[in-house]
TrEMBL record:
Transmembrane segments: none annotated. Pfam families: Bac_rhamnosid, Bac_rhamnosid6H, Bac_rhamnosid_C, Bac_rhamnosid_N, Ig_Rha78A_N. GO terms for molecular function: alpha-L-rhamnosidase activity. It comes from Catenovulum maritimum. Gene3D superfamilies: 1.50.10.10, Galactose-binding domain-like, Immunoglobulins, Maltose phosphorylase, domain 3. Residues 493-830 form the Alpha-L-rhamnosidase six-hairpin glycosidase domain. It comes from the Bacteria. Residues 833-896 form the Alpha-L-rhamnosidase C-terminal domain. Residues 204-364 form the Bacterial alpha-L-rhamnosidase N-terminal domain. Residues 387-486 form the Alpha-L-rhamnosidase concanavalin-like domain. It catalyses: Hydrolysis of terminal non-reducing alpha-L-rhamnose residues in alpha-L-rhamnosides. This is alpha-L-rhamnosidase.
Amino acid sequence: MKARINTSVLLSLIVLSACTFTNNTEFEGQAPIALKVGEGFVNPIGYYEQKPRFSWQIAPSAKYQFQHAYQIQVATSADNIAKADLWDSQKQLSTSNAWIQYQGTPLSSRQKVYWRVRIWDEQDKVSQWSEPAFIELGLLSNDDWQGQWIRHPETGETVTFDIIDNKTKNTKTVTNKVYRPQYLRRSFTTQNNTVLETAEVKPSIKQARLYITSKGIFNAYVNGQKVSEDVMTPGWTPYKQRIETLTYDVTSLVHSGENVLAATVAEGWHTGRYLKLRALKVKPSALLAQLEITYSNDTTQIITTDNNWQVTLNGPIRHAGNYDGETYDANYEMPGWNTVNFIPDNWNSVITEALEPDVELAPKRHQAAAVRLTIPAVDIVKVANPKPGVVVFDMGQNMLGVPELSVPGIANQKMTFRFAEALHKNTFYTKNLRTAKATDYYTPAKSGQIHYVPTFTFHGYRYVEVSGFDQSKTPNLSWVKGRVLHSNFNVHANFKSSHKKLNKLAENVVWGLRGNFLDIPTDCPQRDERLGWTGDAQVFAAPSMYMADVYGFWAAWMQSVRESQNPDGGVPNFVPNKGHGFGKLASAGWGDVAVIIPWELYLLNGDKQFLQDNYAMIKGWLDFHKSKSEQYISSLRGFKDWLQPYAKQGQTPQYLISTAYYARSLDYAAKIAKVLGYENDATTYADTLNKVKHAFRQKFYDEKTKVKSASTQTSYLLPLAFELFEGQDRLNAQQHLVETIEASDKHLGTGFLGTPLLAPVLQNIGRSDLMFDVLFKETYPSWFYSINNGATTTWERWNSYSLEAGFSEESMNSLNHYAYGAVAKWFYEGILGINAASAGFKDITIAPQFNQRLGHAAGSYHTPQGEIKVSWKIDQDQLDMQVTIPKNSRVNFELSQVSGLTINGVAITSSNQNLLLQRPPGVYKIRSTLINKG
Ligand code: RAM
């Protein structure tokens, strides 16, 4: 028998002694690791939260398994950490290792704080303290900014464009403004350079921070050195409400004496056009910066954007736009323009503009974009009807990025670089880019090899067409590389199986992710669109979480969604939008993003703050749904089951879809309200849900639960996935669903909304075998059809392209749309069986779906507690599986297709089924016979 110890006495002893002897080996408990704040930030500079949320993990190598309590200390300096002069949580009995909110005095702009954590294990033994981590805040308020927006005085150049009129289909000419990229600079002398009257020692530079943002996109330099590798900063937010700001540590770049702070600013999303809306009024780009230098004597010098700056439009980047590409002329290069040795002759003085009080300047709350990969060209392709002097490179991969070009040029002979997603009947094809010109130009000042990477644009492409180069040289693969850009998060998708095409599909989905996560989630990266479509986002957000560290990315975009909500509660079709046309309207299955992303990401992370942050929007959205419904049937407009095969928008009736989504949003809202403790709201939403369910059932289905309209897969998937039917109705609907799938010879028949529901519904009704049949179909419409036709990403349409006939249509045909990639969630949740049994994966269910076509499958998922790993293989009928469960989690095994199970050598019989439930962290080796091969 264990002796009972008085825990509180023991604890005070531990706390006391731990404070005195922090490194005492008596406390061998391994310290927590992976300290993070907010949505995954490690030691951030320029952080955004005044009350940060702390997360950590137990090291996989620790001798203990669970956390039973924690203590967090926050201090003003690393030396003071044991004093916890800002906040000491004290010992808190809690198993939570994530999202613990700081409760001290809210942190202020620029403040740098240190924090550490220790935990008590299941035996109530305290661990060592973690290594201290830090957080440094950015500028939190507009009042922190002392400077003004600065820009070139010009008012843009008028350009004419030919566009196809949507109604008449005739070409018409419109005019608009474009703004040339600006080169801005100012020099300054550090304060410690002044001649000192006394003999005291000159103070040295202790720290320098650059706070900076722009309307448009910028690159910044101190003394000619780029301050960071970020690209397309500050990214895209609803600029009329909020512009994100960046913070850079430039301590090592500022010298005592004279310095130059400089920046280039181009159109980006702010000033550039979007969609075909050439005529939309655009405002010029501008820069806002504040360099703060702190000296060893604790004085501070601040350099801001003011009328001491000079600007020119006569730099080498002549034009730059997201859709149309960049034009670079080396004759305009200004060597050293951003250094002290340069004399800015003929530069203009900037004009200044006051900060708008209603435009919030806020620290960027997720990672900026960056070059994440560089890939080589794999082939020089022979096209049909080759034009002399034109060569086409194949990158082997459809991607979002910019080329890295090392091409031989001739002085003053313009080179042209065009981009295409695929060859069309062996020709270079750009019609599916619509009005996006997606062309870069480079004019060399002298003959020889150029080295050029476009700065202020991005393209969605696989093929690069190069012309204008030195014809005496033979094209070489080394001329072109592909720099892959996306927001700077880690991609750790690692699903692998014995099936090549399935693996290729999994890879393609990841490339769809890489290709559409440039600061905001986009529908596509190549044509004149590239917008944050909310429907696409709601289907792909949860799947993307299985593949990359994208929580911060989504949480940031959801803030933009909140800011874009219309006064009537409608959540727009795409975010950000410029308040123009159909972009700001709300649609069923699109606007529901307001509820779907908060709930589904909460299930994966367990971060209640995310629910709270979005709660007002959720309520507004439900009110909006209500205003669009009569007798609990919704008449909200939408895009139906967008791009369902064989039918443009889909045959499932709009109001059936709208009512189903009304129900889904009510259901999720009721759950969210419950988690947040808003019991009345939870009851109201649940009551309304019941009424909507009833109305839905009566309105759209007959007495045999057959849909009254055309029988589509989606018309059964929606009520089954959203649990809108009970009892016999549910069974009937299941049967009708299976019949419709069988009627199409097991091909899918779903669009954007139906497709993500297929796998979870079929698994839920015990028909994973049928899901595998659909998944492994080779012919249209199917996922493998695209692979059989050379896909390296997921496409917008099931038949966007074929090797034989090329692109199926001219418009609306992107080869890089992530929506249909939502199926990849099932690779992790279904095939590997990694499921959250409680929000945030503290409770895990492992329920793999085996199938005769798969000899093995493996992969992992990063939960807030650590990595879950699953791998299984089937040899004859023998199943061998290995599962790793991270610390501070428990696992249930649900293995339905097996018999004669052993776990770590122990046979599971009817009397010890408990060995399948609530198991602790560790490695499980599972063997069994497969009785149902699926
Ligand atoms: C297209 C977009 C997007 C889709 C909408 C309805 O233009 O590409 O994917 O959500 O239409």
